């Protein structure tokens, strides 16, 4: 057990689609867990990552909590991987970057259709939003990038099996998509 | 009901207890409790702390981008957003649902059955089955799908393959398993080839058998844990869903039906294009998720639940035989007209998965899905509304465009938003009935997790990971001084730090 490679995963400002695509390795999951052990991840109950070999980050950075979680991953993972369009360049959520945050909030909570009791949620329990949605490499050093929205299951499989075999990960041309 | 616990009358001298974050996928949910000196719960809230602003930033984009833009709300049910947006933009090009070519209508339905099947399989097998198979308070090392694969390999692998099959249905129609392209304004961009159809037909009988087995499994789990499963987190509520014209279960297109806690009809066969007359959303300062309610009943009494429990409760029948039989057994297990058990969400969800599997087989055998008449056209309009039953409940998309086809207004009510009050009430029920007056213990944390997880909540779908609560409780007095702190370690051990 202890000599297994430890993998942690998280989703920041993403849609969980990259995690879905990871699970799309289907039955290969059984083979994978013979070699790796999942640390903090949406599929485990472990709350913080510690001493991990590989950290997979989905999603960009849109609030203070994302920054905190991302730094925890960088500090605890030997290899940090930006997974998917949002982690790499902010992705679709970054479409809000050319609009002021106030305008976005007003649309949802003040001027929206059918909105009653209009006000901007402002409780101290809510984490502070960043003015822009950022790619993760603006916050921490990133070792590898897996492009795609989402990267296909075969990308995850090729990347991880290369790493686990001690090879430098290489994605053949047909696996690289920027959709 | 427990609404009186939403806001304490007098917050002075109350202790604040936080579970933060509730969700770890996006880490954007948390529960706060305020307790008096006898540990009686005076306030309990589930906060959703995510905000993305889709309704604003899609303004200025041409309408035909909507199905592929808004599906990025959610990587677990992208197809539901894709299709809700497609139904809305159908109207922008003057095509009403009844005028969609039969091939396009059936391909969309097939696509959506694949979506609901894979999402329900994911929630049950990958996220919930560890609790149900190992027990809510089992060791942390067991509460994941890997442990299920190790100890119940048959069940675990069935889950993986059921989800795979749903994803393959999606891929055959839309080109990709996640965020594909299939629906366009007025129709679909391709039909199935015979080879694609035959590929999907190969396994469908096995899929139906496995989903039948899953329904039997959850029924056994539920009924062998009575009355606990019927009482836990349970609240008597209104329910809202689409149904077919004849009142049968419907996931793709129908009229709005709402029933009250007694099973009496509040509204039925309502055209969803009128949704704004019937449903408004209240904003509360302590959460980014709004609180929808039926305007006829008002803010206090008009809230409702959606999703599998609502749909299976609301419908008069299911038009596939195995799922219909399962529905009848489901309704018979309770003593009242409506099944209010929150944990029965799991049971209802798997009945729907079975319905999806049966429906997929029926559609695959329908030659229309290989048809070539795929797109209808009509007169341009300036407003479009699309509503669909997503895996987690009724999903509303509403867009307005200008003369240049640019989006000028958007309103989205995602499924989990409609369960906002329900989840809060379930949290308060557990807090009041299972926690109040007791010292903080680990089972308390699990109880709150289990209550929320039953809803399969999904904000950009991340809250799926709600079961992965990073369990740290802090007890702070009214002056902010830390009184008590508990941490659940990775090995499941609870440590009390004071």
Could you please describe the fold and organization of this structure?
The complex is a heterodimer of chains A (179) and B (498). Chain A is an alpha/beta fold. Chain A has one domain: NADH:ubiquinone oxidoreductase-like, 20kDa subunit (Rossmann fold, 3-Layer(aba) Sandwich), CATH 3.40.50. Chain A is elongated. Chain A has six helices and eight strands; from the N terminus they run E-H-H-E-E-E-H-E-H-H-E-E-E-H. In chain A, the strands form two sheets. In chain A, strands 2-1-3-5-8 form a five-stranded parallel beta sheet, sandwiched between helices. Chain A has a two-stranded antiparallel ribbon with strand order 4-7. Chain B is an alpha+beta fold. In chain B, the strands form five sheets. Chain B has a six-stranded antiparallel beta sheet with strand order 3-2-1-15-16-17, covered by helices on one side. Chain B has a domain at 3-50 and 423-497. Chain B is globular, with a radius of gyration of 22 Å. In chain B, a hairpin with a 5-residue loop joins strand 16 and strand 17. Helices cover 40% and strands 18% of the residues of chain B. Chains A and B meet through helix 1, helix 2, helix 3, helix 5 and strand 6 of A and helix 1, helix 4, helix 5, helix 6 and strand 9 of B.
Structure summary:
Chain A has 6 helices and 8 strands; from the N terminus they run βααβββαβααβββα. With 179 residues, chain A is α/β, with parallel strands linked by helices.
